[in-house]
Automatic annotation (TrEMBL), chains A, B:
Organism: Haliscomenobacter hydrossis (strain ATCC 27775 / DSM 1100 / LMG 10767 / O)
Start and end residues of each DinB-like domain: 12-150
Name of protein: DinB-like domain-containing protein
InterPro entries registered for this protein in UniProt: DinB-like, DinB/YfiT-like
Domain of life, source organism: Bacteria
Pfam families per the UniProt record, alphabetical: DinB_2
Source species taxonomy: Bacteria, Pseudomonadati, Bacteroidota, Saprospiria, Saprospirales
Amino acid sequence: MLFELQKSIEILERTPAVLKTLLSNLSPDWTHNNEGGETWSPYAVVGHLIHGEKTDWIVRTQLILSQEEDKTFQPFDRFAQLNEGAKKNLPELLDEFQALREINLTALKAMNISAANLEATGIHPALGKVTLAQLLSCWTVHDLGHIAQITRVMAKQYKDEVGPWIEYLSVLHK
Amino acid sequence: MLFELQKSIEILERTPAVLKTLLSNLSPDWTHNNEGGETWSPYAVVGHLIHGEKTDWIVRTQLILSQEEDKTFQPFDRFAQLNEGAKKNLPELLDEFQALREINLTALKAMNISAANLEATGIHPALGKVTLAQLLSCWTVHDLGHIAQITRVMAKQYKDEVGPWIEYLSVLHK
């Protein structure tokens, strides 16, 4: 499947609703437990997605399409949400993510990105030169990957409860 | 996290809505492609979930709680949905899954399952003796695992499009 802006937006615009449907009104056992150690709970993942909306995807898109001479991205702090002082509750985070995503997709659509724009490049601080198409593909995959992570983390809460079925449930082995 | 019937139902009753939010009105490139070879597309996974509603979870629950002498489960055909003749489209499958799940959860709640019931056992044809609590835990994890699978399969459609970011996107390596 080749990159298409519209097909990426199809995913990006539904992620907030998917997360609300998946996580709203669940017992905290499902949303606030992790996979052990320093791994992330579903709650922490939503905080991470919010941080991406604020500092990563659209900011980098704007930089790639700007007239700036130095198109090196600011590093993205993948742990920012773990350090935030005043903690919001999960419903607040889900609302915040939805609002930020809507603003960012409105901005993205307003850019009227052309085929040539998609080949424009920026410099990732660790990975080097990347195209706008790669950035927008990454944004899309990042959403899907974190939905997969959230459901895997939730599944693992019952790891000891499934008895001998653990053998058949590959999600518990990832 | 220990098994609780109500916490399991929290997950089971939202899965159809999660799948509809995730998959409705998407381009077929997202829903009908797989991970290569004999792997399953999101469309195939929904068919598999339907087959489970028809032949597995509630049927086995009823057998465990029955007065039958032989409580050996019928084997579950994990590939049944791949062999079905008249193919339904994805919106039809999503509706069918939702309707079957609703019927099955209504039946489950009507059983008024007690703590003692949860320790009752049946015989899995390959795994041997299993408890009702393990069966219901497995049903719950099975839902979550297949949502994780669906989003992973979708993410992989952009595997070649993310460029050097592939290194950071663990969902593309599973």
